[in-house]
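User: I'm curious whether this sequence folds into something compact or stays loose and floppy. Could you predict its structure so I can see for myself?
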Amino acid sequence: MNGKFIVDNQIVEEKILLFDDKIIDIVDDIVISDSDNVEIIDAKGAYVSAGFIDLHIHGSGGSDVMDATPQALEILSTTLPKTGTTSFLATTMTMSTQDIDNALQNIQNNAHSVTGAKIVGVHLEGPFINASKHGAQDKNYVQSPNFKLIEKYINEVKMITLAPEVEGAEDFVKQMTKSYPHIILSAGHSSASYEEAKQSFKWGVSHVTHLFNAMPGYHHREPGLVGAVFESDVTCDIIADLVHTHPSTLALTHKLKSDKLVLITDAMRAGCMKCGTYDLGGRKVEVSEGKALLEDGTLAGSVLKMNEAMANMVQHTSMTHVEVVNAVTKLPAQMIGVKKGELKKGYDADIVIFDENFSIIATIIDGKSKYKRM
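Assistant: Here's the prediction. I'll summarize afterward.
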């Protein structure tokens, strides 16, 4: 009660949100007696929205998905509620086939048992990428698209980032689109030309991973993947940490992509941790001043928190509070087909209370408190 509820693309006040493990209803008033055993949460004028969903996160709190242990998933899961994230795709990276299989098997066996933010699937980032745009991924492990790598985990995989221009990509995309339409095929770590990118959208590629990063920049004679995204209705995601993307680039992207834009963190294990030396995919990473860099200066994921990304977008673009919330709730939930991301009757009771500056006050998952600011 006493909140600014973000519902149906608008902010409504003087409402009461009823929930247990699911959203029961949003009502104008309710009579509660002393015997009803009901907890009352006073939002005290703060914003109330559905829980945030991160479609691209490798790690946080000192753990990484590629650690391939139940403990790593639990640490990641219990760290994220302080950032407002209530669900995420556990994101792998380009390493050996055995390392990827170990990570996928660990997720398959243990995702259901985490006690914080829910693991709602896997984002396979690589190894089906272009070695020339490997970024912080290890190019020695890049391989052609191969269904056998994911065959045992087809129910867990919700998104695959791949380079549509590499050999074998066309057949792979067409096969996946036909047989497994629930899996989002996303172009990324790619040197695709404008023409190649547009063609891949016809095959079934429907999303683009961390727009501008690990792909050629937009050029007036070679618009490339970025240009193809700007004139297509595919969705795309962006890392709004002011390191991977300049504020003016964020503003332009919002203007051109509007309700097709998703915010992600692409965070690595140093997320929510102190500056220092960490690793990503077995490679040394130095973290300082909000940057995570390999020894050669290459950006190695981020240490971005989701609520910080949202604050950056509102500060540096024309994005409203409603739009920025939709970019981390409603749209990603619709993309991966989960009954989350909206404060609607019957949806999971994943709820975040935050202030005007997106500082998290409380996070609720499946109706249970998982974080509360002291």
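Summary: The first strand starts at residue 4 and ends at 7. Residues 97-110 form the longest helix (14 residues).
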